[in-house]
Amino acid sequence: MEDNIKTGKISESNKNESTRIPLKDELLVKDLINPINIKRIRILQVSGALFLLVILGLIIKFYFFKPPTGEQLVNDMIEAAGGMQAWDNIDHGQFVRTHRRYDENKNIIKQEKETYYFRKENGSVRIMVKSESDKGDVIIIGNDKDGYWASKNDEPAEPHMVAKDLEMMCHDEHCTPLCASEMAFYRMSFPFKLKDPGVNAQYAGTNILNGKKAMVLDVTYKPEIGVDRWVFLVDPKTKLIRKIEHYASAEADAQPEEIYWTDYKDEAGISFSHVATSYRSNGSVLEEFIITDEDFTTPMQEGYFQRPVAMK
């Protein structure tokens, strides 16, 4: 030991112990030796991680947050209303539709009660309507293999004439006595009728309805099917229809007919609005259609829609 000190020599084991550097200190030294390269590597690493996060975010947005197609929204609306199978299971039935018209102070100035009888037949619907006016008249309008027929207070009547008196016909030369009634039933059949052939349904983004966001579905038809246009405002959560805008033509710039749907109830497996309301431009209620006494299960006898024997 003394010899080592005197000669200034250090043993091999002591030399190794004096030159060994801890790994963490060695890395610090390397960083100090070439700090620019190390910094560039770290920048590349961070940039790569951020790039992967952006790609992952875009994938999640594409698969989970992308806007629905028109077809997807229609499917969601039908499912929310009970499903297509539940609608197909209903092949006949009846319901009462009360029509109320109001003045600007919401006083009833006209009220009519109509009982609808319907049966699905070979892709179409046969309808018969019994109307009870506020004057007490009872009018029935139907359609059988011999054409349209009508009765007023159990007496034969001319169907076109009584239908015009009840404002059930439009001014089109091809309008029929049950024109308004068939349109009313068609509207009641939404959203299921949106799966009919020739319907073009497009998702049109969102809009604000009564201070809340609503999904917008824009519907037109193939030229051989129809020329009108429907716009549906749909609740994003429930997928139920809250408002309908009806345009006489897909190209029309005129103010549409606007109908607000409320009071959804279930019947025979389907959910549909029982109150349809139209408003004046000043916000007061113009008219209201209320559905009650629906029955989609009681059997109907054969020949139910035929005109009475006394009218043949």
Q: How far apart lie the N and C ends?
A: 139 Å
- Low-confidence residue ranges: 1-10
* C-alpha geometry: elongated
Query: How does the helix and strand content classify structurally?
Result: alpha+beta
CATH architecture term of the largest domain: Clam
Estimated radius of gyration: 37 Å
Order of helices and strands: HHHHHHEEEEEEHHEEEEEEE
What share of residues are in beta strands? 35-45%
Please summarize the sheet with the most strands.
13 strands, antiparallel
**Helix run count:** 8
- Per the CATH scheme, the topology name of the largest domain is outer membrane lipoprotein receptor (LolB), chain A
> Which CATH class of the largest domain?
Mainly Beta
CATH homologous superfamily descriptor of the largest domain: Lipoprotein localisation LolA/LolB/LppX
Mean pLDDT: 85
How many distinct beta strands?
13
Oligomer: single chain
Helix content: 25-40%
In what order do the strands lie side by side in the largest sheet? 6-5-4-3-2-1-13-12-11-10-9-8-7
The tally of structural domains comes to 2
